[in-house]
Amino acid sequence: MRAADIADDLTTVLVTEEQIHARLAELGQQVTEDYDGKELVLVGVLKGAVMVMADFMRALPKHVTMDWMAVSSYGASTKSSGVVQIRKDLDIDLADKHVLIVEDIIDSGLTLAWLLENFESRGAASIEVLALLRKPDAMKVEINSRYVGFDIPSDFVVGYGLDYDERYRNLRDVAVLAPHVYS
Ligand code: 5GP
Ligand code: MG
Ligand code: MG
């Protein structure tokens, strides 16, 4: 669905599907240059990163592999608990691999900080982060995210994989959720 289909639930469209695709193509080029001659493993964080992974992966003109991890820190609330729990671990061994974590959004940064530490302990050759969205004003810990799609304000957003209580993931654009939906 597009933002116009559920206009009552949204206040502002921040990033359109077209803008996302264009930006992912740019990041794909950058990643291709940076990982020239190296094997790359993309690790997506379920479920929010499914759309970013699908579109970003296809923007790459070389072989890559993909794996997924499911963690939880949010539930049906709109604020990070800071408590991270593994719900589904990786299938592959990260030892000596060049890993690029693919994330939907960096909000407080707590989830990624935890994941980075966890992946480092598995002996990866390198670990970088690609995040479609980042909220600079909401970050509680410094995250060295090499590839960022868009910096956005600290409002709660939905769409392009991002949910509120498991809904809105199939919205094609990224939009600010109207407060009346969750208050
Ligand atoms: P953190 O606060 O740890 O950086 O964010 C953890 C996770 O919370 C993100 O990966 C994302 O799934 C979710 N999250 C953070 N901000 C938002 C937001 O504005 N909208 C939605 N739908 N999820 C968010
Ligand atoms: Mg996420
Ligand atoms: Mg969520």
From TrEMBL:
As recorded in UniProt, its EC number(s) are: 2.4.2.8
User: One cellular component GO annotation, for this chain's record?
Assistant: cytosol
Cofactor(s) in the UniProt record: Mg(2+)
- Domain (Phosphoribosyltransferase) ranges: 18-164
The answer on whether this UniProt entry bears the keyword Glycosyltransferase reads: yes
Q: Is the keyword Glycosyltransferase assigned to this protein?
A: yes
Q: Which InterPro entries match?
A: HGPRT, Hxn_phspho_trans, PRTase-like, PRTase_dom
As for family, the record states: Belongs to the purine/pyrimidine phosphoribosyltransferase family.
Q: Which reaction does it catalyse?
A: GMP + diphosphate = guanine + 5-phospho-alpha-D-ribose 1-diphosphate; IMP + diphosphate = hypoxanthine + 5-phospho-alpha-D-ribose 1-diphosphate
Tell me what gene encodes this.
hpt
Top class in the EC scheme: transferase
Q: Which BP terms does GO give this entry? A: GMP salvage; guanine salvage; hypoxanthine metabolic process; IMP salvage; purine ribonucleoside salvage
**Subcellular localization(s) per the UniProt record:** Cytoplasm
One Pfam annotation, family name? Pribosyltran
Tell me the protein's name: Hypoxanthine phosphoribosyltransferase
Which pathway does it operate in?
Purine metabolism; IMP biosynthesis via salvage pathway; IMP from hypoxanthine: step 1/1; Purine metabolism; GMP biosynthesis via salvage pathway; GMP from guanine: step 1/1
